[in-house]
Here is the input.
Amino acid sequence: MENQLIINGKRTDGRGPTDLRPLKIDVGIIKNAAGSSYIEHGKNKIIVAIYGPKDSHRYGMNIEKATLRCRYHMSPFSTEERKNPQPSRREIEISKVIRDALEPSLILENFPKTMIDIFVEVLQSDGGSRSASITAASVALADAGIPMKDLVEAVAVGKVNGTLVVDLNDIEDKEGESDMPVAFMLNENKITLLQMDGKMTVEEFKAGLTMAMEAAKKIKEIQKEALAKKYSQGENKK
Amino acid sequence: MSKLVVPGEVVAKGNFRSWANVLKKGEEYLSIFVGRAEIGGGRVRVIRLSGPYIPKVGDFVIGVVTDVQPLAATLDINSYVNGYIMANAFFKRRIDPSKFDLSKKVNVGDLVAAKVQRIERGKDVVLQPDQKWKVDGDAIFYISPAKAHYLYTSRSRIPSKIKELTGAELRLGANGIVVVKGDLKKIEMVKRALDVIESKYNLNGLYNEIIKVLNKDGKSADN
Here is the structure.
């Protein structure tokens, strides 16, 4: 029998279908890195650090632009049961997905023959860790001073008990009918990531995309506030 | 006061004669960095507040020699790329490397002041040594290259004031390297001033703040 995850329009954590989980971003938390950020999105706790641009090895060097590399890793203590620290198939896939979602926003042509490393470390995992990682990594890249066309913000929409919901938590992710993470460059009006597990009708897909876009606008404001908080330090108070 | 902008944010709309650190999209100018937007005099630009030193032809930089080969010396210029100075440039004429030994002129660990002459293949930064290329100092400081313009630009009154109030000799590079010559007390005072630039770069009246910190320093040292 299907679990009832939505009762009287409320989800398991008390949110409505279009509500985001609490979201907090801090910028510049790792002094050794060129740029860094920390995100708490629901129960997700993730650190992102950017290293580079730096000299590229001959292998993988691109003479036209910087090579972007990403490593997404879940700490052994990030899940309820110990996670093997070796990179899993899922982690390798998400590393690629994060890199592909961020690359269109970056102006890598300014740094030919170099490489930029993105390290994503999940300290505590909940549903939507790839979306939270993309959101945080985009802020960390801005903090590193890598030229960007736009910030990237990501969020998942899905279908739970026949209802479209935004920003799925772990149980909705696992037991819902479908899950669709989407990443946006809102100013450019572009989608840089679109994945889907499960099934949706065309109408549901269109409605879901609109809901995701509205949620992404809220996330973008939080990204901007986080950057402003760091870079307006020491400013004269008016 | 200039406005803080983030990547993708619209800095200005309209037509401008020149622009820097923005993307032009139709009539809109979008920032590509986290920085301070400056609009006026027919130009729009964003002064970035973070990021590596991006070499630009004409910049004066200070580099640390990391390798000396018969034909060229390699320098760490606090950037994602290395700087190179050809042996000819040191001797100011075409030389035969079998007869001249570049390591007699310059060695690993030396500090060299030079001007960015050209950037080849998008990455190799060829430098021209300054008239007084040998940089002699008692301490070397690295400040964030994005904030180095507070010291480096010709408009800035800050370097001369630091020199005046501390009595130390300074050599500044656009790449954020500051070499100080002086005794320990002078070096400490310069460090205080550089810390103010790093932490309070947003402050209106940064110049006065530095004077305040250095004057306070002077008094406490006298007591």
User: Anything to note?
Assistant: Chain A has one domain: 12-226. The domain at 12-226 of chain A is CATH 3.30.230.70 (Ribosomal Protein S5; domain 2). Residues 202-231 of chain A form the longest helix (30 residues).
